[in-house]
Sequence to fold (366 residues):
Amino acid sequence: MPSAAPPRTRNSSAVRHGAVFLSPGATYHADSCEPVRQAVARGELQLHGFGRRSYPGIPLPPKMLPEVSSVGFWDAVGTQNWGLDWHRNEGIELTYMARGKFDFLVEDEAFVLQSGDLTVARPWQRHRVGNPNIAACRLYFLILDVGLRRPNQPWHWPSWLILSPHDIRRLTTLLSHNEQPVWHANQEIRRCFEKIGELVDTARPLSVQTQMQLYINELFLALLQLLQKKNAPLDARLTSTRRSVEMFLSGLPEHLEDPWTLEEMARQCGLGRSRFTEYCRQITNLTPSEYLAQCRVEAAKRLLRTDPQTSITDVALNCGFQSSQYFATVFHRKTGTSPRDYRLKVAGSPAPGKQCPPGTKQQGVK
Fold:
């Protein structure tokens, strides 16, 4: 079913063997569902499933349906004291709520899943299960890896998926451009999930391979028919080059301390300097260096307002400026005042004379 800009990686300590997605400006690791493991260990949750890599469940043999990352269902009796915080999965993730209800969040939208609901999360789409915890429920799930490891890559469906080339192309378009994450499952989708649940209850993966393959095929055919019938709202920008630049720019404020150069920013989006600059101007009306400086100054303003104990030098370094002198120059150019005077104005207290900690590395745009 989980972000950080190079060279650092978020959540890497919790995910050791999951798939990795190289998004512009960030490296995402597939979630390990560790809260699920812990709930099972405490006896609070019954899990029936097959999984590979970091996912819980009975390990799938290497050659058995290799694109299936996780499949099965869980039973939670009573309100739980855990949930799955914001995370991402490497494949297309389908879940079906058979019984119960809980909060489900995708990007900026919040839903209350109820019995009969189907969720469809795109590969590496940010989502959350429970807010913060889940309630009593039975939830079926399937994560199918389509080989997406960078934006704009083509989807690679399993060779054992027997949909026609036309249907595969249509399904890929519907899923990759889909903006509606929650649907009401029809009878065929419910039946497929329930049959898959019966198979994982056998605890012998190889003995049910053929049936598992059959029901997953039927499930995706039923999903295709549902999305076509309901006229799923689509947005082609979700897979466009411009979208990749938008993703990078939106995530840049979280990684301001990195030594960004124009070349590195463009490389993260798979573009040349000129093309990246053109997209950046279209989106922000600023050049990349101007936008980066603006983000760093805005971050510095927040620190100056909220953390009066941090020295001006530390604020500069924490926001990615190569020195306090350069920070003061850029800050004055953007705000018309110095960092010290800004702090006095908004906080009413003098900036402390705290020195930069030993070993602090100065970073900035080259």
